[in-house]
## 1
Amino acid sequence: MTIDRNAPCWCGSGKKYKKCHLDFDEKIKAYELKGYEVPPREIIKTPADIEGMKKAAIVNNGVLDLVGEKICAGMSTEEINTLVHEYTIAHGGIPAPLNYQGYPKSVCVSINNVVCHGIPSEETIIQDGDIVNVDVTTIVDGYYADASRMFMIGQVSQEAERLVRVAKECMEIGIEAIKPWGFLGDIGAAVEEHARKNGYSIVVDLGGHGIGKQFHEEPFVPHVGERGEGMLLVPGMTLTVEPMVNEGNYEVCFDEEDGWTVYTEDDSLSAQWEKTILITETGVEVIAY
């Protein structure tokens, strides 16, 4: 869609287009003409969008802080679900996972060999020595924020502790690889290199995603890749970096009964950290952590 140079900018800033996003749009068009995959305008966030996501992130971060204070051996994963649900509602949010494509709970709690999407249950009791991923997504006024953290319960093995640590490093290295006017493949290349260097594998069937007014937006964010390939990354894009790092091979399997829980195929341990990232003119800003 062509916008008159003197018309209000599409981003809602109130400025004339020529004083706001005209140069930005022309730069993207130049990349597109050279054959690069470029982001559609609808996934580039306006200042109002970013403010909305930051409000959702305040609640999301508070939820994970609370879980960090309360989680312990002897708790059921259903108790974690109750904590997340009640805190979110009390702070004006909506737990995004609840009823999302039939998912029955307000949070995902994944233990040991569960890669992701573990469904909370009164029967699943957190044990000393477990490593636990708690994945929280919150909606506030129609905007989403998404993050997960790992928790080591009591005395964990050296092998488990190392996996959790390297998984966090993989996420951080992936975030560091994000540059405005860089490429999506830069993230995956950096993550995969660090995982392999430490003897681990990266799950390829699942990955990060764009986020904003929807739970999952473009682009899919793989955590393996080649530098300089994939979608162009530009200021105003928001996405999650959330590599799933396996102690064994990268293959996974889905629970046939619940249709959600993802396990490592070889029953090895898995760890994951996740943050929601805003790409800025100079680098990145972490929104949800």
## 2
Amino acid sequence: MLLLMMIFFIFPTNFAVVATRQLGLRTELVTLIMVGLDVVAFFVGMVFGGVVNRFRQSVKYFAPMFFLLGYAAYLVPDVLMVVLGSTCIGVANGVGVPYLNTIASIKGGKNSATTVMPLLSAALYLGQFVSPIIVTPASHILFGNADLTGPYKVGIGLCLLFMVQVYLTRHFQSLPPK
């Protein structure tokens, strides 16, 4: 959850500045795109049960993959790509948060409401607040202060790390004990 929220909060921290400076979008359109992302996340969350049933084995990779596609789309200075990227970020968040909550509650069992879920909430909020503290300096170090898309590039790197983490976590959990 920490990594998912770090990746997600690259969007609200940087989107308005990048969209207005790089594409010259008016603040009203930036607002609509940002709200649209949340609407997409809401609807994806509403159909999450069906998504899990249909893509049972691969759904764990949806969040990192859609975040990756979203931030990669932001590297192309085009309004359509920004809208598609925002849609992908919305899908990633709409799948990622319910997936982690579901897995945590299943793994935590009947006591998860008092044990696992508060830890998941703490990781969510920690990810929200450490995202700009980690991503912005990393972007400046790696890509310089002038690269407006630097945070998205760092996000792509975090998405790759997230994908590896998902694979390793799920892979080693399914191995039989020695």
## 3
Amino acid sequence: MFRIHILGCGSALPTLKHWASSQIVEVRDKQFMIDCGEGTQIQLRRAHVHLTSVQAVFISHLHGDHCFGLIGLICTFGMLGRTAPLHVYAPAELKAMLYAQIDLFCQGLEYEVVFHEVDTTKAQAIYEDKSLSVTTIPLDHRTPCSGFLFREKPTLPHIRRDMIDFLNIPVSQINNIKMGAGWTTEEGKHYDHTQLVTPATPPKAYAYCSDTRYMPRLHEQIEGVDLLYHESTYCDDKKDNARKYYHSTARQAATVARDAHVGKLLLGHYSARYNDEQQLLNEAREVFSETYLSDENMVFDV
């Protein structure tokens, strides 16, 4: 299971239609949050995501619509009796302020908030476990900003159940076969590893590109990902605004997706000026047909 829960896809100016930026990345029974704008914990409830199951929060940059909900979320975790550490990955400037807020608002917190400084100027691995890695994607915004690339690690091939039954292969040998061993029957007939397994499921990848100007070489960092979320604050008629305020148009987001040969593109971070985002979608699909609008409470499989 590798899927994305959209909690908020609006931009800085609050509207009655969209919530501030936030997503949940659910991968192999682990849950990670990207950005945490105001109201994120309410949206978690609506998405039926268990609040205390979030292992880590990745903050792309220090604009309020991407991080104002973090201290409230931390306090709520405390009221729910969380004991597991919460890891926060964010630009270094947030660290002192976050711990000051915790000291002021969350006295007696019974779990540890572990802060990891993110260098937004270079691509580097910031999280890794046995099944997943997370790498930063340097972006071009008014303040230091980083996207995040979630990539599954390759898995072992699948054992053929029919061959297990046919050859009476003991359970103790299944992992050895997955690792490359063959099997010889009591009669001396040998079966090669390739006869006993089917290929592993190809690993998937998801790229989250938060607030950024159009970057002509961004596609090189996210080549071939299965799903890309790229901010699309404006339509093409406002591309001067996009450049001025360090944002992208829907057409520019689609250009990145096309050049990176991604599977699908999700648009988001819509300007409050648009009551209907269909114009954004239409412009993007002129460049990249596999483009979709993100919306609150939508879930996308990677």
## 4
Amino acid sequence: MSDDIILSVESVSKQYRLGQIGTGTLSHDLKRWWYRIRGLEDPFLKVGEANDRSRKGESDYVWALRDVSFDVHQGEVLGIIGKNGAGKSTLLKILSKVTAPTTGRIRSKGRIASLLEVGTGFHPELTGRENIFLNGAILGMSKKEIASKLEDIIAFSGCERYIDTPVKRYSSGMTVRLAFAVAAFLEPEILIVDEVLAVGDAEFQKKALGKMQDISKGQGRTVLFVSHDMNAIESLCHSVVVMEHGSVIKKASPQEAIAHYLSSSKNTDLSKARRTTEGDLWLDAIQLNGSDALYQTVRSGDALEMVFTLNRRLSLDEVKAVGFYVVFRNERNVILFTISNRYDDMQIVSAEKYTSFRCLLPDLNLTGGVYKGTTWMSLRNGFCDEVEEAFHIEVLATNYFGTGQMPVARKHGALLMKQNWTAE
């Protein structure tokens, strides 16, 4: 490992046995032992499937990670992106030594501090102050070193009033703020941050991102950052790793890696979309401008008609009790606007039973770019169904204002606003 490389991941794989705790059955353990004393490779490392949750597998073994290799240079901020289930969190747990790899090895220089889940490394019965000293001791710092950073940690976290209260009384947001402050100010050589920052409010997220930039640029420390916020990834990271089904498929500049990830993330099959369903009512199909295709191209200013078919027929009373929402985001996962039958005096067609909701946006005032819609449904104020990134809309820029100007999202923002200028 060269002098400027602070972290090296070499052919790391992680295998799990589905539905089991430990290595598996006694017969499997005996077979492993028999192969090992004969100097042969573990026979169960040859079986297993990629971690593709969109299809049903046949093996009891699954590779959460498979032959992952990359190097991280000192002072580098490395972003790690990928769909849910791509292996990002498993990789961070191995880097943080929470779990061990099945094969491969990790080589690193210096102390590693990680922020993987809300409350990671905190003892719930201890106060915030006591947990600061506990975490510092785990990192190998003396009591005097920790005390010198104590006031900065408390001030950054914004938890001064509750610092002598047991952390089990903290909200998730307070816990994250304190945990991040501890991890950042105790000056580890490598800081690992998972999506957990999303729990904090917008102001704290901005402050945390600024602190990570200071850690990297000002102090020359290394940061590994997992996020679904592409804006944060692009602004913070020097390079980005794209993961898919437990493997690294690309390491490149933030712009190139994000473009690759977004182009491979567009949903074309509703059954493969990530969804959460509770109850007996859920979204069954979507039509966009009369087509079943979940990736549609339209022009700025054109109409967009969406038909959402439900899994069962509803009575008039049930239809009136349904809240149906569609949240539109841009490619960087920023919410742009939301539409809902609750925002409109919904017309009820004369019928005994209803099978779908239809929504017409008569003037799609979006700039050129790709947008995605997540659906969310409730019945009588109880949650029913959510489909993340249920469909994608590619909007082609047009002469929307009749002036020859054709704004695009990446330069001018997402929305086209009707306006009337005068000079006086």
